[in-house]
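## Example pair
The file below holds two records. Each record gives the amino-acid sequence first, followed by its structure token line.
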Amino acid sequence: MSRINLVLGVTGSVAAIKCKELTRALVGIERVKEVRIVFTTSAKKFVSRDDVREIQNELGVRCYDDDDEWADWGKVGDPVTHVDLAKWADVLLIAPLSANTLAKLANGLCDNLLTCLFRAWDLRANDKAIILAPAMNTAMWNSPFTKRHLKSISEIASSAKDDAIAGFIVVQPIEKALACGDYGVGAMAEVSTIAQLVALTGEEKHTREFLDSAVMYPSDYD
């Protein structure tokens, strides 16, 4: 079993409060060699400073935000953070993926460290994978824009396949009582589900039953 480097992108959804729980699960996966986290500015509204300190100090995970994009760059030839992270990582997991960041990714925007990292990702590499775990209000999830954006990314990421085993995976959000008080589909998948997908990404050990319950297929975007 090859070990992987993983970047966890955390965006501005209330599900970002699960960041510490998700990080703990990820570092506990045997095949995960190292985890690094990239926070968007909005994500930091949901993740406390205490949680970030615990993630860094107790879990040993390096955390980045938009300020780090320029921290090591002063002249031509200096390191470019988003490029270096895109080269370093074998798996890019964005969990939670907000409606705002989804729209940015689908349209190729590069306005923060995470979107630049996504744009720099080598979609042609057979040994690299992207996992997206959307999280948003039910009305936003049901918006035709959401399926259009997911379909656009899926089509561009040519490695998306019918079996959804490698290359590009969208984790099906779940139905539950949401933070806004509504009840419906849109909540981020359970941490255990996301961790299991990470553990098996690129490994042909998925069961059809598990995939059908956890993953969106290209036909789901139509």
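Second record, same layout:
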Amino acid sequence: AAYGDWSIIAGHFYTLLGYEVVTAPDNFFYSHAFTMYRSEAFTHTGVLATHQASDNVTNYYGYTFGWDTGFDRNAGGGNFLGGSSIALSDNTSLTYITTFGDLGGPGARYGNGNGTGYSHSLVFDHTFGCCDKWNYVAQTDYIDATNYNPLGLGVTETYGLNQYLTYSMTEKVAVGSRFEWWRANSQDVYSLTTGANFRPTDNIVIRPEVRYYFGSDGAATALNTGGTASTGNHLLDTWVFGVDAILTF
């Protein structure tokens, strides 16, 4: 529903947190950042109001049943979701989104729920260069919640910083890179991804990429399913190639 400078949605909707999104066609890379999987919600159920305060400022105010929960309120979540997006210029924006309260959260990602806490995401987005062909994004996440224990690392808070740089070579070809840092329980993990987008037609995109993981040995077991640093069977110090193709219609 919309009235004047306000619009309201109610139900199940994608999160405002972070830079990368759930819908694959709206991301440059095939893979996702550590922060998206470990420090952000995917969806919410509740109500969200958007207010266009001015030509340059958009504010968000919402209440949800936690992270990734439905109307049955799995894990008993109930929190504020909101923030602001500011257009600093025609080519530059800064967005702050927060959740605080009982963050809830069902399933293997959260165990019995995140508990009570606070999270935020900051995204700086800048387009520059000849014909605006370059785009730089810096995104940082922070979360601290009483039951938040990502990957069994025994910690209630994490930090993350991602940086993206893309270049549109033509209307059909773009190249880009992403560098990540994610920290939990004094363990640091990093990832460097380079890739490309090929668009042979308006509704097809092919996204090849190469990703390299490195960081603390202590993070290796947690970031892989069953592998350990001592056996070498883990993701760190590993190159991974991925590719997908998306057809929209």
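Notes on the second record: The first strand starts at residue 2 and ends at 3. The first helix runs from residue 34 to 38.
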